[in-house]
C-alpha cells in the first residue's frame, strides 16, 4: 500500500479545529518542522497538543503557540519558551505537566491498546494527590487544577494509576522511510517520535529520504508501517532545515 502524499499541506489538510495531535521530537531535535509549518498555514486552531515540549519561541510548536492556535498542552518540559509561560500564567493555555518517563509510557500504552498502567513516579506528590494548576484566570489565580489519581499498593509499595494517551493525529519525522510507512530514525531524533506515532489514530511522517519497499532491512526498522497512515517525502532543502537550540563552543 502506497501511503505517500504529494505535499505536507495535503497530508495535514483534514486536521480540524480542536483536534488532538501527538508531536514527536525532543527539543528541536527530530521535530516534524515541515508538517508543523503546513499545519500553521492550514489554519487549524484550538489544538490539543501532546509533546515532550512546545518548541522555542521561533521554531517547532512555538510557531503554532505564538499564533494562539494551541488550546492545551500535555508535556514534560517547557523551560525554553517564554510565550508558553506567558500564555499559561494568563489563562490563555491549559497545561498538563507529566513526568517524562510517564509521558513516554502513556503514549506507548495508547499505541498498544493498554488503557492505563500503574507507576511509582509521582507517588506522594501533587501529581498523584491533585492540585497542580492546569489553567489560570487572567489575574493569575487558578481556574482548574489536576484531580487526585487512583493509587494502589503492590508488594508493599504504592503506585499511581496513569491513563494511556491516544490522539486524533500524530506528526513525526524520520531519517528514512518507505512507501509502506516503515521508518528509521537517526540517533536521538528517535526520542518520542516512535511513541507519538503509535499514539495517533492517523500518524503522518515526514521522511528525509524516501526509499522503495524492501530497501529497508527488517532488523533496521525502528517503527513498522502498521503505525503510519501517511508519508511525506521532504525535499533536500526541507531535510537540511534543522535548528540547534543552544549553540556551544569548546576551547
How would you describe what is shown here?
The strands form 3 sheets. Strands 1, 2, 3, 4, 5, 11, 12, 13 and 14 form a 9-stranded mixed β-sheet that branches. A 3-stranded antiparallel β-sheet has the order 6-10-9. It has a two-stranded antiparallel ribbon with strand order 7-8. 23% of the residues lie in helices and 29% in strands. Helix 5 crosses helix 7. The mean pLDDT is 94. With 251 residues, it is of the alpha/beta class. The longest helix is centred in the middle third of the chain and has 13 residues, at 100-112. The chain is built from 8 helices and 14 strands. The protein has helices at 8-11, 33-42, 61-66, 82-89, 100-112, 126-129, 193-199, 236-240; strands spanning 4-5, 20-23, 47-51, 70-75, 94-97, 116-119, 133-136, 142-145, 151-154, 157-163, 167-178, 183-184, 200-211, 230-233.
List the SSEs and their pairings.
Elements: E1 4-5, H1 8-11, E2 20-23, H2 33-42, E3 47-51, H3 61-66, E4 70-75, H4 82-89, E5 94-97, H5 100-112, E6 116-119, H6 126-129, E7 133-136, E8 142-145, E9 151-154, E10 157-163, E11 167-178, E12 183-184, H7 193-199, E13 200-211, E14 230-233, H8 236-240
Helix pairs in contact: 5-7
Radius of gyration: 18 Å
Q: What is the tally of helical segments?
A: 8
Flag low-confidence runs: none
Give the % helix: 10-25%
Largest sheet: 9 strands, mixed
> How many beta strands in the DSSP annotation?
14
Apparent shape: globular
Quaternary organisation? single chain
Q: What pattern of helices and strands is seen along the backbone? A: EHEHEHEHEHEHEEEEEEHEEH
* Separation, N- and C-terminal Cα atoms: 52 Å
Structural class based on helices, strands and sheet pairing = alpha/beta
Q: Which strand-content bin applies to the residues?
A: 25-35%
Mean residue pLDDT: 94
